[in-house]
Amino acid sequence: MEIVRHWSFVLLWTWFSCWSWRHLPLALGVVSYVVAIFFIGGRQRALAGVLHQACYGTLMSSTKIGATLGATLAGYPMLQSFTGYRLSHVVNHHGRFGDPQRDPDYLQYQRIGLCGQNLRRERLRKYLLTLAGPRSTLSYIAYLVRHRILHKEEASWERYVRIVGLLTIFVVAGATGWLGVLVAYWFVPLVTTQVWIGAIAELLEHYPLIETAPRVDIYMTWNRHYNPVERFLLGEEEGEGYHLVHHIFPRVPLWRLKEVDAILRRDPAYADLKRPRGLAALSTVFASLPGPEVESAATSA
């Protein structure tokens, strides 16, 4: 089961890093910790993907069981609300896709200054170079808080359950001497590597197509491709890269998106669409933005 696999990976890296601190030289302990929070952040992002599936009712054949498991074992540990995620993503992003005033993803591109007059390579390069800095990190965290953690329309009972559950975990961890481990290996990657991986993943879903392309789903979303090694590094499931397929058929389970993509590729217009590939996927995004010569001409004008 996907949830078990992700949690096993998190626990394995936590154990290995803790073991390294105790039995290896300090420098190697530091290296093991940095590597651990990178991989844990990737699996936290993957758990957010589980919540995503649960909100669409595609995680399991039983939508009620899938929603319960997705919320309690994936969403709540990520501090994310099932109700908030469903409203912001399923209703507002998919339901109002491409609306510059109501699509949360489009609004986030605008908030970080990548739209309008800033729709150019130099601005994207500057954003990526400062992605791990406090301003960009806090901007993405604010996006998560606004739309998925403290959504204004979240059911009061769900917020109560989440708060009580979080407090219980902190109390138990403190009483058993595991609070430091909890903070270091869960909450540190939650506000660092998970945020950075998530921010880049968001770019590779719709940017800059959501602003520059014709107002048709097929042209406003990227399908991206990672090989097994790259998926392992980033914590991505195989079907997660078929984001365009997901937008066209949002009720298709993740594991069947590749099959649907193969069918869609029989259509020449679909088959001709560009696909960001591998760890160099951002190069495709850069190529779709105005180059230096266009920027210089615009400045001169």
TrEMBL record:
Highest taxon of the lineage: Bacteria
Occurrences of domain Fatty acid desaturase (ranges): 32-272
Keywords: Membrane, Transmembrane, Transmembrane helix
Any matching Pfam family: FA_desaturase
GO biological process, one term: lipid metabolic process
Leader sequence residues: none
Keyword tRNA-binding recorded: no
Keyword Lyase belongs to the record: no
Residue ranges of the TM segments: 20-40, 165-188
InterPro entries referenced in this protein's UniProt entry, alphabetically: FA_desaturase_dom (IPR005804)
Entry protein name: Fatty acid desaturase domain-containing protein
Organism lineage string: Bacteria, Pseudomonadati, Myxococcota, Polyangia, Polyangiales
